[in-house]
Structures are given as C-alpha cells and as structure tokens.
Amino acid sequence: MLPTLDEERALPQVYSRIPFFELEKLGFNSRVVVVDGGSTDNTLKIADELGCQIINQWGEGKGAGIRQAFKEFKKLDDDVLVMLDSDGTYSPEEIPRMISSIPKGGISIGDRLHGNLGKNAMTRTNWLGNHLLTWLAVALHGEPVNDLCSGFWAFSKEAVSSLKLNSMRFEIEAEMYTSCAYQNITMKHVPISYSKRVGEAKLGSIKDGTSIARKLIIRRIFPTPHEE
C-alpha cells in the first residue's frame, strides 16, 4: 500500500524498486495499491500506467486513506499488508525483511531512528520531534516503540482486523501504536534505511506534531475510539 498525494516524481522510483521477484520466492503474489488523497499532478496517471490498483479516498488526509485501505484489505484473502510512504524516503528493497519480521498475529514497524539514517534525510526539528513523541507515547501507554512516526509498517491479517482507528491525518501511525498497545497486538521494531525525500515535504513539524501528541493523550483517556 502506497499512500500518495502529488508524488509524480517519486512514485515511479518507488515502484521500480519493489522486489517482486524476491517476494515471489518467499511465496507471495504481490500487488501494489495506491491510496490517493486527491493528487492534482500526474500521480494517478502514473499509478495507472504502472498497473497499480487505485483507491480514491472518501475523506481528506493520510489517516482516512489508510483506514479505507484497511477496510478493503479485510475483505480480501490476502495474508500480509505492507505500507510505506511513496515519497522515496523508504527502501522498498527492505520489504521482504519487514515481512519476515512480522510476529505471529502482529506488526513490524520500520525503525529509522536506530537504522541507517541518510544525510539530510531528517531535519533536526523532525529528529527531535520524533524522539519526543516516541518518548511521550511510551510514557503514556507503556508499550515500547522505537520510532512512533515511521511510515513503513508490515501487518498480519489478524493485526489489521484488530486495529481500532479513527484518525484522519498524520496522527494515524500514533493511533496504530496505541491500538496495538490496548488490543495486545505484538509489535516488532526493525531497523531500516531512511533517505531524503523526493519533492517537498507535506508534514508540518509543529502543527502535525501537536496533532500527534494530542492523539496520544486522547487515547490515554479513551483507549478505544469510536470508529468513523
């Protein structure tokens, strides 16, 4: 699953690096689903030309798109779902290792902060914000997590079926963590590579960081959300 919003420059590169042959050797018949949040460039045209399945979101924001994709995934016979941002920051070559790391009935989370963090891949503000939010998450919810805001996750079917979410925007990863904590979904932290993104960043450091912190606090008070 590739969440997109105006990623015409990065999407072809990300797609071309997906190790389909290696995944086939592991026994997986893979397909790529693009979850688009309203791109106005050529992202959807490119996704169609690449043969991707396209999901046009029913709501604005990354969280809305991911939750919609989860609902579609639960209807299918697929066993594993991999999610990574389509901006070129993550390494699709690491998908097999992420899948192989999924604990039984659980989730593996790509860990940038203890992995191979490329030069200029993350600003000092974002690096500090990630550490602070990760610390806050553990302090509030008790379950270890190394990189709360990672955009590279691999899910078992059982885990996706157990997640309880209602996030609309970039706080979705934080809520997935809290749902794992309260639904007793096992999380495995996998060191990964992280590179400078292609194109302009869409995550606003202060505004989105505040939204993530707010979601963590809300889920401490109300662990199970009303699913929209």
Could you walk me through the main structural features you see in this protein, from its secondary elements to its overall organization?
It contains 9 helices and 7 strands, in the order βααβαβαβαβαβααβα. It has helices at 11-16, 20-25, 43-49, 62-74, 95-100, 124-141, 157-162, 172-182, 205-221; strands at 2-4, 33-36, 53-56, 80-84, 107-117, 152-156, 187-194. The longest helix is centred in the middle third of the chain and has 18 residues, at 124-141. The chain has a single domain (2-221), classed as Alpha-Beta Complex (Spore Coat Polysaccharide Biosynthesis Protein SpsA, Chain A). The model has no long low-confidence stretch (mean pLDDT 93). It starts with a strand and ends in a 7-residue tail after the last helix. It has a 4-stranded mixed beta sheet. It is α/β, with parallel strands linked by helices and 228 residues long.
TL;DR?
The chain has about 230 residues and is of the alpha/beta class.
Let me know the CATH homologous superfamily.
Spore Coat Polysaccharide Biosynthesis Protein SpsA, Chain A
How many independent structural domains?
A: 1
CATH architecture, by name, is: Alpha-Beta Complex
Q: What is the 3D form?
A: globular
Strand order of the largest sheet: 4-6-5-7
The whole-number mean of residue pLDDT values reads: 93
Low-confidence stretches are none
CATH topology: Spore Coat Polysaccharide Biosynthesis Protein SpsA, Chain A
CATH class: Alpha Beta
Q: Structural class, please? A: alpha/beta
For the largest beta-sheet, the strand count, sense and barrel status come to: 4 strands, mixed
Would you report the number of β strands? 7
User: Helicity level, as a percent range?
Assistant: 25-40%
Secondary-structure element order, as H and E? EHHEHEHEHEHEHHEH
Oligomer: single chain
Helix tally equals 9
Give me the Rg, rounded. Answer: 16 Å
> For the terminal residues, how far apart are their CA atoms?
21 Å
Q: How much of the polypeptide forms β-strand, as a percent range?
A: 15-25%
